[in-house]
Amino acid sequence: MKETTVSDIEHINIAILIIGSIVSILIMREFKYLFSFAVASAIMTLNFRYLKKIIESGFFSSKVNKKELLTKLPLKFLMLIGLVAIVVIYGDIDIVFFMIGLSTVFMSVIINQIISVFIPAAKRRQKDGA
Would you tell me the crossing angle of helices 66-90 and 95-102 to the nearest 10 degrees? Predict the structure, then answer.
């Protein structure tokens, strides 16, 4: 199978955000549903991107700073929980569309794996050098 990169998942996630927002406004014809999906999907996209930066800075540098990882990861999680709580409490959202928006990273990973299954074996061998 094709090697999955984080940037591939990010691109698919942004495509899901755009397509899902368009579909939600076309089907439901109310801004509340578009807002619910788009805000949740954007939160997860930014969360995924920030997590990528934390991991890259923590593991791809010459020395791993465990204290930095131990502070950044819980802070990122608390910020995510706080942002979701603020949107749910004060925003005029539809919970179903909000939950679908929160699952866009999961959908991106699944779509990426499905795409990689359907790449012909000859193409995979060329790319790997085998």
Answer: 160
Is 54 buried (19+), middle (13-18) or exposed (0-12) by CB count in 10 A?
middle
Write out pLDDT tens, residues 42-78: 999 999 999 988 888 877 777 777 777 788 889 999 9
Count of domains observed in the chain = 1
* pLDDT at 115 exceeding the cut of 70: yes
Residue 1 lies in a domain: no
Per the domain annotation, does 51 fall within a domain?
yes
d(CA 105, CA 41): 8
Answering whether pTM is above 0.85, one says no
**How many angstroms separate the Cα of 85 from the Cα of each of 43, 75, 91, 106, 130?**
12, 15, 9, 20, 50
In terms of residue numbers, what domain contains 25? 6-125
In the block, tokens 């010459």 appear at 62
Is 17 in contact with 102 (CB distance < 8 Å)?
no
What whole-number percentage of the chain has pLDDT above 90?
A: 62
